[in-house]
Amino acid sequence: MRYIQTKHLKPGQTLASDLVLSRNRVMLRRGKSLTDKLINKVEILGYQGVYIDDALSRGLKIRDVISPDLKHSSKNELESLFFDVENNISSRINNKMKSVKTQIRKIVDEILLNNNVMINIIDLKTYDDYTYSHSLNVAILSTVIGAVLGLKKETLYELAMGAVLHDMGKMFVDKKILNKPDRLNADEFEEIKKHSKLGFNFLSQNSSITHNSKITILQHHEAYDGSGYPNGLAGDEIHLFGRIVCVADVYDALISDRPYRNAMLPSDALEYIMAGYNTKFDPKIVDAMIKKVAPYPIGTCVKLSTGDIAIVVKNKQSSSLRPVVKIIDNSNVKDSLIDLANDRYALKIIIEDIVNY
């Protein structure tokens, strides 16, 4: 299977995975053949892309670092918690928080079991579930980074809990500002910037959340060079968890469609992160992330410096920018593999662009 942006979908293509709305409501089942009407429906619901099966991607399997069922159930628990917080249903919040903590422990455990798996999956977000999908993805990516840094399991539980709740404070921000379809003005941005303190203050009343998790929520917008907020901390003044979640938060936001801009490709988002190396972002965290996040996910079609079009079939942690590819010839995939990192004849070949094929 391979990922295709919604704007490039064509009638006759076959869905490779279910399209699931909130509360595990399946909109379209895997194996469904797309029509113009269904493509229009996918677009209206706000999916930025879907996974398809076709001749080019035959035999390609993309493993996620956690199972789809765990991802869906975790997103549902998170949505339920955020709803109760936003609507001040205090009688249910403690139990919902416990449920989210249970899901977080499962996520960390599963990531550690799959520690050899790179992040090749582009999450199928919709506009409506962005908050929950984003929060969950930030927790997953933060855990993956923490594992590369050698954090112990109990520490990863704390990191992931802080990461999944990092935007809790947005439940207390004016929804007109949150959902504004274009860029915020200066006053609106100042209101948004309050969310890290609002979330920290709210969760400070909850004894089941550790201090390390809470400080993550407060500091996830602090920048390594001191240019962030709310307190303008720099370097090691920022808790390690805050530095990790800062990187994960920015990356997932960049690869997501937002009302005021289109999603970046993973390769472009990683370039942005690397441009902030030792300025906005802690360099050791960027180094850890690059080992685990594939700039060219499996199934991506790329243009090589030879002029050939190829499809990515494998990524390796040791050489994420130099994947294993197969050449596409007249809509057919050649059998021979080209390892851009290790094949001597391919060492001068570079990836010039990502193409829609």
Structure description:
With 357 residues, the chain is α+β, with helices and mostly antiparallel strands. The protein is 41% helix and 12% strand. The protein has twelve helices and ten strands. The strands form three sheets. A five-stranded antiparallel beta sheet has the order 9-8-7-6-10, with no helix packed on it. A hairpin with a 5-residue loop joins strand 3 and strand 4. Helix 2 crosses helix 4, helix 4 packs across helix 12 and helix 9 packs across helix 10. 38% of the residues are buried.
What are the defining features of this structure?
about 350 residues, three-stranded antiparallel sheet, 12 helices, about 40% helix, globular
Give the strand content.
5-15%
**Percent in helix:** 40-55%
Side-by-side strand order of the widest sheet? 9-8-7-6-10
Our Rg estimate from Cα atoms comes to: 21 Å
Please give the alpha-carbon distance between the first and last residues: 13 Å
User: Could you state the order of secondary-structure elements as H and E?
Assistant: EEEEHEHHHHHHHHHHHEEEEE
What general form does the structure show? globular
The number of strands is 10
Secondary structure tally, helices: 12
Helix/strand/pairing class, anyone? Answer: alpha+beta
